[in-house]
Write a structure and sequence with these properties.
Length: about 210
């Protein structure tokens, strides 16, 4: 016990824990940003307007496997699970154990799988869970701040893991992700959501049915 606690005053750690409990998911999200800023795009989760616009092009009737990179505290997870067909699966991949632990504790759904790992290994990850291809992959990873070489590797791995007709859904605050996507996806639709902090760029990279 510290001298501060002996004097009857809460320690800085206890104060932080109290703040986290009061803030709930926002507190966990902010802590993850502070610890790993280059892996989190913003200190504020995406708005419902961004979520709805990003997911709108998805053909949910034909979506059996949806993958998300960098789910954070599950801002997109619940909306995706609500839209998934009865036999669909959502696999989320994150390198931050803080977020993975939070998601495992707060989302109890038989269609939901959390993986502590790298998006670069997406093909190996989905195969380990009985899938060969993904229908859609969503990412909010900050491609402009990822370590050198990681962004291009993720774009390549994503194109490889998608089924023909599937799509790579990306929301970003810079155009860097589109540069990486353009090397693999010949058709990229784009949009913008101003009702987000900060305003958000949206990209949908479609894998042509003639692609490998």
């Amino acid at each position: 016990m510290t001298s501060t606690e002996l004097a009857g005053e809460p320690s800085p750690r206890r104060i932080r824990d109290r703040i986290k409990r009061k803030l709930g998911a926002w507190g966990v999200f902010f802590e993850g940003f502070v610890k790993h800023p280059v892996m989190v795009g913003s200190i504020i989760p995406s708005s419902r307007f961004t979520i709805d616009k990003m997911l709108d092009p998805v053909d949910w009737d034909n979506c059996k496997l949806f993958v998300e990179y960098g789910p954070g505290v599950g801002t997109f997870c619940r909306p995706v699970l609500d839209r998934l067909r009865g036999d669909g699966t959502l696999i989320v991949i994150d390198t931050n154990p803080l977020y993975i632990d939070y998601l495992r504790r707060t989302i109890t759904d038989s269609h939901f799988i959390t993986v502590l790992g790298s998006a670069v290994d997406v093909q190996e990850i989905i195969r380990a869970h009985g899938h060969e291809k993904a229908d859609y992959v969503l990412s909010g990873l900050p491609f402009s701040t990822l370590p050198v070489g990681v962004g291009p590797a993720i774009a390549q791995a994503t194109h490889r893991v998608l089924r023909p007709g599937g799509a790579f859904l990306v929301y970003q605050y810079t155009v860097k992700a589109r540069e990486f996507m353009a090397k693999h996806f010949s058709r990229i639709d784009k949009g913008m959501e101003m009702l987000n902090i900060p305003p958000c760029r949206l990209y949908w990279g479609w894998k042509d049915k003639t692609d490998d």
